[in-house]
Amino acid sequence: MFRSLFLIAIVSLLSGCSSGTWGWYVVDPSTPAGQRNLWFLIDGLYYTIALSVTAILISIFLGLIVALPGLARQRPPRMFNRVYVELVRAVPILVLILWVYYGLPQVADISISVFWAGVLALAISDSAFQAEIFRAGIQSIDRGQHEAAHSISLTYADKMRYVILPQAIKRILPALGNQLVYMLKMSSLVSVIGMEELTRRANELVVTEYRPLEIYTVLVLEYLVLILVVSAGVRWLELRLAANDTR
Amino acid sequence: MTLSTPSSSPQPFIQLCNVDKFFGGFQALKDVSLDIQLGQKIVICGPSGSGKSTAIRCINRLEAHDAGTIAIDGVTIDDSAAARAVLRNNVGMVFQQFNLFPHLSILENLTLGPVRARGMAPAAARELAEYYLERVKIPEQINKFPTQLSGGQQQRVAIARALCMEPKIMLFDEPTSALDPEMIAEVLEVIEELAASGMTMICVTHEMGFAGHVADRMVFMDHGRIVEMAPPEQFFSAPESDRCKTFLQQILRN
User: Which residue does chain A place closest to B86, by CA atoms?
Assistant: First the structure.
């Protein structure tokens, strides 16, 4: 938060000595109206985080389910993996969001909330990438690990759970961190179906206050701070896991 | 091919019968037949690419053979549940590259199989792990991680891990080939003690001194075939085939 305020201070200083197109009063924390607007904007953080975290958890799960058949010896499961990845990867996220929210209820005769439509669309879209990341991660594990697991008679499920995946996940952690950052940013697209997350909040405020420059600048800073915090968290996790062993 | 195997007892514990194995167009095993009784120690040697590793990898189904039959305790080795059960209850393996699980502690490396595959209680598995670590002479390393140990210690942990499954047969695939010279002795010593305790063993190795006093039978393989099979005294003093003579000359010169 300090960092964002600091940046705001710099930007406003710069604007003070130029043409005067800036009007920071709209988010000035020293006035009641500015404070109210600022909180209105920051409040969207809850849904941005809730959307992204729920979606990433589901997409990791889906990705793993899709990745495993891709590693099979037989052709049919590998085909399933290929078709899923290629199909899902080809659909733009925005299109998927619109389709899930407006289209799915008609096809499946269900009503779906804005939140879950957003989560579902983001998760499905991301799952194709997660599947590729998992496949690469699992393939990077030495064949000897599979053979050792076989030699102590572990079942396939036990081998994956206790031997292969713990090592694979450690290796793909940077990539998973990337996906989380990507997800946080892509969640802004869910604003188009009315999800009250950061971007939607900013859009609404712009409509009432007519100060797009300042409000969108705050929005940019909000995402910046959020993502810097997440990146630092992922790096901390990586270091902690790397401390255990190196190989 | 006909090779004289000691045919005293009727039912060999492990039986390889005319086994072929292909990797694409390359034939790694050609008509390999081998009978092993419980308690016997077999040492397989031969030049690299001769099929000796493939032979023992087929025994515990790390590779699927393409023709012929392999049977352990009368059960045919294939992808069936019965074959998996026989392998689980009877066969342990030690690899050239140790293949310890680097993310697990030594204790967890040893107890994973007993707990997950044999359904043992964690406390009992721990006792078992402590017992076998004692036998490979590194009980104090139980809470360390594999990368904190020397190569020789890692291989001894790998032996203990295999023993924790309480197998009747141990397969060793060049257990000392990846070790620094000064660590070979400590690993061979553990394997020799295991042999002395009556364990059935099939060992692929180039350590001929070790082979000489452990093996009941030496098997020499070349180009996927068993070329010669004999008790060690006879094998080392009077090899029959030229290929075997050449191989022994080369390897004993070092």
Answer: A153
User: Are the CB atoms for A41 and A199 separated by under 8 Å?
Assistant: no
The predicted-structure confidence for A98-137, as pLDDT tens digits, reads as follows 999 999 998 888 889 999 999 999 999 999 999 999 999 9
pLDDT for the residue numbered A88: 96
Q: What is the pLDDT of residues B157-186, one digit of tens each?
A: 999 999 999 999 999 999 999 999 999 999
Question: Which helix or strand (DSSP H or E) is residue B21 part of?
Answer: strand B14-23
**Tokens, residue B97:** 């590259």
Residues β-bridged to residue B9? none
C-alpha torsion angle, residues A18, A24, A28, A34 (rounded to 10) = 170
What SS3 state is found at B204?
strand
Is A175 in contact with A129 (CB distance < 8 Å)? Answer: no
Structural domains in chain A plus CATH codes: 2-43+199-232 (no CATH), 45-195 (1.10.3720.10)
- A245–B162 CB contact, under 8 Å: no
Smallest Cα distance from B116 to chain A, Å: 7
> What's the gap in Å between the CA of A105 and the closest CA on chain B?
44
Domains belonging to chain B, first-starting first, are 14-253 (3.40.50.300)
Q: Give tens-digit pLDDT for A137-161.
A: 999 999 999 999 999 999 999 999 9
With contact defined as beta carbons under 8 Å apart, do B201 and B212 qualify? no
- Token digits for B233? 């005294």
How many angstroms separate the most distant Cα atoms in chain A? 74
Reported ipTM: 0.91
CB contact under 8 A, A150 and B60: yes
State residue B2's pLDDT score.
Answer: 46
Chain A residue with Cα closest to B109: A163
Instruction: Name the A residues in 141-200 with CB < 8 Å from any B CB.
Output: 142, 144-145, 147-148, 150-155, 158, 162-163, 166-167, 170
Whether A29 and A218 have beta carbons less than 8 Å apart is answered as no
State whether B102 and A167 contact (CB < 8 Å).
Answer: yes
Name the residue facing B162 among A147, A151, A167 (closest C-beta). A151
Query: 3-state class of B94 per DSSP?
Result: strand
Q: Which DSSP helix (H) or strand (E) runs through B171?
A: strand B169-173
Q: Which of B60, B98, B99 is the best mutation test for A, with the most CBs of A within 10 A?
A: B99
A38 contacts A191 by C-beta, under 8 angstroms = no
**Residue count of chain B:** 254
